[in-house]
């Protein structure tokens, strides 16, 4: 294959195609000396919060281990009860520390486990099955709104003012997870929306979105999840963005015409 020496500008254009949210001048800066959470600065408070959070996570791990090993017909019911108790624990923690983003991110993860990533649709069945296979419609809609609100709040609490503003590694990790979780919900919705009605509270913007809107939002969130540390999310970002895919095809054809058919972007 012919070797092609691309200019810096051309290389940046191609990187933009691979990562639609990319900016060659941007990058996430982390600083270990910063408070691990910008809203829980007191070290004794932070240690207390993390200890309580880890205790709930350990409960979740035990629930999953028991569920995977159980042959009982009521295994799902037992797991649901366990998860709902974990929700109560996180509710109490967030009530006391409403600006602790990691707890909100973990509460959203419990909601996804209970109701699945298709929670924005009327019908949530499909693989992988949510624990609550046939939820009450009002219960599911409320859970979906709460999940999105928790992820939005997590992102809002931890997002740096600019990409040149340093944040702690812990904050970057939570941001990556929050963006990636929301992307999973948006992506699942986009894939099933053609044959399932949307079921979102009318006061949310998503209630008016089309399949393409959900795809683009998922791509955006995956790209940001990647920027904050999740490389798998970054790699998936362009594959689900219809605009980026189309632009990529157009630019690759143009580059082939300029550099020859051996060009491989």
Automatic annotation (TrEMBL):
Listed Basic and acidic residues bias regions: 12-21
Polar residues biased stretches: 1-10
Single GO biological process annotation from the record: tyrosine metabolic process
Region (Disordered): 1-33
Residue ranges the record marks as coiled coil: none
Family: Belongs to the TTC36 family.
PANTHER family (alphabetical): CDNA SEQUENCE BC021608 (PTHR21405), TETRATRICOPEPTIDE REPEAT PROTEIN 36 (PTHR21405:SF0)
Name of the protein: Tetratricopeptide repeat protein 36
Organism for this UniProt entry: Conoideocrella luteorostrata
